[in-house]
Design a protein that fits this description.
By secondary structure, the chain is of the alpha+beta class. It folds into 2 domains: 256 residues, no CATH class; 121 residues, no CATH class. Helices cover 30% and strands 25% of the residues.
Length: 408
């Protein structure tokens, strides 16, 4: 089994990349996408969120949405906005955000390796979201949203990447959010062979972001094979070395205090945490530290040593310890995947977003967390376990539209 392989990418012609590049489909609402693409007829949002070209009341999971996406996708190919490479290639993809630089490689990743847990998972998927990605792949006959993979850093891969990056990139574009995206097409046979040999030594990869996309690709492949079709043995992915990956905190906001007064909540929390009022927003600096915001007031929480879980890769996560010692028993949220009283705020939005959600009256309390470590993610995946929902927030996000994988 070949874990990773080069592929004939479908991508923008160089003078159209600025018109095409778009944020990933799942970071924008339909209204936000409609506004962003309103004056951009070739934006990839017309493919990834095609409900923006239908009446606003359209259900984003309606069959007409997938048909519109396929129509827009076909139009971009017919009009020469997108072109497909004649030979299989790899694609180096560099992102720069606020001085942080990370360089990955766009590959066709093996569905069989995913199914056999060589490409490892750490999250459950939600059926509705997974079905959506299945329908999108089937409608387009392509995978357009890359799965974000990570692997333990390898010197020989870094060496080749650094060599290629000495040349001029094929694309060099700054997106609307200020992130710089550069891409190099690796078509040289010797360089492809180098990467093939390097990839053959990788024992496993890890899904950082994209569990629904990879699960959907597996389902589509299984369906095609049962129908006697081929050409679906891989899925689109960009793989980054672990020493370059950046994880932000993923914070929590709760709609009510479960009938508790502020005073009784603080008293109950004090049984498991040291509590200290703060006149500044609290950004945790170490494991076991948390910020808590109630209307007009921040607190620093530090979990008592006897409640610091150890040994178990899931229970020792900061998100788990907060849930088991506070959110679950005190606020009565037993299933954060389904309970509508809890919401999640990516750390990229800053602590001011937590204040905004509470001060508006929309939420009653917010918690800031220390970011989950990539080593913790890998430990959970290696143990065959699952993280609590919304444990990691990766930045920068991979753009949609730079390269797509066509199912031949």
């Amino acid at each position: 089994m070949k874990l990773l392989k080069a592929f004939r990418g479908l991508r923008p012609v160089p003078d159209r990349v600025a018109d095409v590049i778009a944020p990933p489909y799942d970071v924008l609402s339909s209204d936000e996408a409609r506004e962003l693409a309103s004056d951009k007829p070739w934006s990839f949002l017309h493919v990834s969120k095609p409900e923006i070209d239908l009446p606003p009341e359209t259900d984003p999971y309606d069959e007409s949405v997938y048909a519109m996406g396929a129509s827009n996708f076909d139009k971009m190919k017919q009009q020469g906005v997108l072109m497909r490479d004649e030979q299989p290639c790899y694609y180096l993809y560099e992102l720069t955000m606020n001085g942080h630089v990370q360089t990955g490689i766009a590959v066709a990743a093996s569905v069989k390796a995913y199914d056999e847990d060589i490409i490892r998972k750490h999250e459950y998927t939600r059926p509705k979201k997974e079905d959506d990605r299945v329908n999108q792949i089937k409608a387009l006959h392509a995978q357009t949203g890359p799965v974000f993979l990570t692997y333990r850093q390898q010197d020989d891969i870094d060496e080749l990447v650094n060599q290629v990056k000495l040349s001029e990139p094929t694309y060099d574009e700054v997106s609307d959010d200020g992130v710089r995206h550069r891409m190099w097409v690796v078509s040289d046979a010797g360089q492809i062979e180098w990467l093939d040999k390097s990839f053959s030594r990788l024992e496993r990869l890890y899904i950082a972001d994209g569990h629904h996309r990879s699960a959907a690709a597996s389902r589509v492949c299984a369906g095609k094979q049962s129908d006697g079709e081929s050409g679906c043995d891989s899925f689109l992915a960009v793989m980054f070395p672990d020493d370059q990956v950046q994880i932000f905190d993923y914070n929590r906001v709760i709609r009510d205090l479960n009938g508790l007064s502020v005073e009784s909540l603080l008293d109950s929390i004090g049984k498991s945490f040291n509590i200290e009022a703060s006149d500044q927003p609290v950004k945790p600096a170490a494991k076991g530290e948390y910020g808590m915001y109630l209307p007009g007031q921040w607190y620093k929480l530090v979990i008592h040593p006897e409640f610091m879980a150890s040994g178990d890769s899931v229970h020792s996560l900061d998100v788990s310890m907060l849930h088991h010692n506070l959110i679950g028993p005190l606020l009565n949220i037993t299933d954060p995947r389904r309970d509508e009283r809890i919401d999640f705020v990516g750390g990229i939005r800053g602590l001011e977003e937590l204040e905004k959600r509470v001060d508006s009256g929309d939420m009653a309390v917010a918690f800031s967390l220390y970011p989950t470590g990539l080593d913790e993610l890998m430990a959970v995946a290696d143990a065959g376990k699952v993280m609590p929902p919304k444990s990691t927030w990766f930045e920068p996000k991979l753009a949609d539209g730079l390269v797509s994988y066509v199912l031949d």
